[in-house]
Amino acid sequence: MANRRTVIAGNWKMFKTVNEAEDYAVRFLEEVKDVTELDIILCAPFTALYPLKNELEESVVHLGAQNMSWADQGAYTGEISAQMLLDVACTYVILGHSERRELFGETDEEINKKVQKALAAGLTPILCVGENLNVREEGKAVERVRAQVTHALSGLSTEDLSRMVIAYEPIWAIGTGKTASSQDAQDMCAAIRANLTELMGPTAEKVSILYGGSVKAENIAELLTEPDVDGALVGGASLDPLSFAKLIHNAGSVVTRMEGR
Ligand code: PEP
Questions:
Q1: Which residues have a Cβ under 8 Å from the Cβ of 141 and sit 6 or more positions away?
Q2: Considering the entire predicted model, what is its pTM?
Q3: pLDDT at 261
Q4: Using the 8-state DSSP alphabet, how is residue 238 labeled?
Q5: Which 3 state secondary structure label does DSSP give 65?
Q6: Is the pLDDT of residue 203 over 70?
Q7: What angle do CA 170, 99, 7 make, to 5 degrees?
Q8: Beta strands in the chain (DSSP E)
Q9: How confident is the model at residue 260 (pLDDT cuts 50, 70, 90)?
Q10: Distance 137 CA to ligand 1 centre (A)
Q11: Quick check: CB of 215 below 6 Å from ligand 1?
Q12: Confidence (pLDDT) at 229
């Protein structure tokens, strides 16, 4: 964690009805309403976004979606546009999550189109990259992640990059309870930053790079002490408002301590 804003984003995946989301928002806000030392984002299913817009209005919690279309509008059954997300007060959108890549066949080319569309619309993409276990065991993790980053950023300007968040999520650590060691997380986040520097120069220093994969209240502090880990994308541990709030408070303590306040 350097001179960059720390970001903690929750990814609810395909969990929570409208009622459950509203109930969560009330309980969560009560716990985190005074947190200003880091950015908090909730990435909810599409159906919960509109009710959450009302619950989270003027709060410290930002709203994000988990996917969007590369098209503006039209005959794209089942898709959601950037404009629709803006309409429900989303400011962030997760793009290229490994579950979208692996289960729904999203390609690097589509992800690049989505990143471009999100940026053009004024949304902040949270671009996910990460290798699976085979690739890691073959010693090709850095190569794979660099290729994902390079494809996703194709055609972007340095100004575009400065408005992005990148999340390194090793697939073998997502939802498995296996966290990468904080050194593994640091090594890959540093490799991503080096790749960004090669592609875009010093703007790379401004980009928040998150780690994701079985992050919990118990391991967030250690991860955040690494110089290139600027926050976390949190799946399972974001589903309960009180434990997610605890994780955020633990992260906040590290930020405060490292800023020497
Ligand atoms: C995720 O969904 O992006 C994720 C990292 O999940 P989990 O925290 O459950 O591993």
A1: 131, 135, 170, 188
A2: 0.96
A3: 54
A4: G
A5: strand
A6: yes
A7: 60
A8: 7-11, 39-43, 61-65, 92-95, 124-129, 165-168, 208-212, 231-234
A9: confident
A10: 21
A11: yes
A12: 97
Whether the CB of 213 sits within 6 Å of ligand 1: yes
* Distance in angstroms (rounded) separating the CA atoms of residues 41 and 190: 23
Alpha helices by DSSP H, listed for 15-130, are: 18-32, 46-56, 82-87, 98-104, 108-121
Cα–Cα distance for residue pair 163/122, rounded to 1 Å: 9
Structure tokens at 92: 């962030």
Does 212 contact ligand 1 (Cβ within 6 A)? yes
Whole-number mean pLDDT of the chain?
A: 96
Q: Is 249 a residue of the active site? A: no
pLDDT of the residue at 247: 98
CATH number among 3.90.1150.10, 3.90.226.10, 3.20.20.70, 3.40.50.300, domain 7-259: 3.20.20.70
Quote the tokens at residue 47: 């159906």
* Selection from 200, 149, 209 nearest residue 2 by Cα: 209
pLDDT band at 178 (very low <50, low <70, confident <90, very high): confident
